[in-house]
Amino acid sequence: MAVRLVPPSETLTAPGLLLRRWRSGDVRAIVRAVQASMPELSRWMPWAVEGYGATEARAFLDQGRQQWDESQAFNYAIVRGGDVVGGASLMARVGPGALEVGYWVDSRHTGRGVARRAAAALAAAGLAVPGIDLIEIHHEPANAASAAVPRALGFERADDIVNEDGRPTGVWQLHAGRLADSRIPDLLDQRRYR
After folding, report:
1. What is the rounded CA–CA span in Å between residue 98 and residue 172?
2. What is the pTM of this model?
3. What is each CA distance from 149 to 34, 85, 176, in whole angstroms?
4. Other C-beta atoms within 10 Å of 168: how many?
5. I need a labelling partner for 27 at 20 to 30 A (CA). Which of 85, 105, 122, 131 fits?
6. Cα 164 from Cα 127, distance rounded (Å)
7. Average pLDDT, rounded, for the chain
8. CB atoms within 10 A of CB 151
9. Largest CA distance in the chain
10. 27 neighbors 58 (Cβ within 8 angstroms)
């Protein structure tokens, strides 16, 4: 029998960002962000295909509700200044005691630390889930922007793997015991002692 995770909060914060559980009313916001970012997203995200529209966004939201209820994934809208500017997830697909952080950012909002701050909030929330002591970030090796996020947060580079789609994947890890030594507490202004 699979262990059911205690879900993290449905809302998380990072400086200048709100991460909140996706809502059924987010269909238009998802489509707008994905379509504006298609040239960049389609290089790295298998789900980002030409013609992505309301049908695909609704299917994503429906799947996300089911995954949340089954403790398989916890998907969040990244909101900045009231606008949805991307998505981020904690996914229970890397083994017992571990969660994977994933993220994408609307191309109109890249280069502003959105992915870094969202990943920091998710990593901290993931390590607060009972039984979780490892957070991983996976990315295509050629995706330098995605690789910069875990590096900036203080994750350690692990051995590359081949993912379920047969593609090489860069892996970064942060163990619970290393959270205090990472840049996450400072980034989230969570340092208790200075």
Report:
1. 12
2. 0.92
3. 20, 17, 18
4. 11
5. 122
6. 25
7. 92
8. 15
9. 50
10. yes
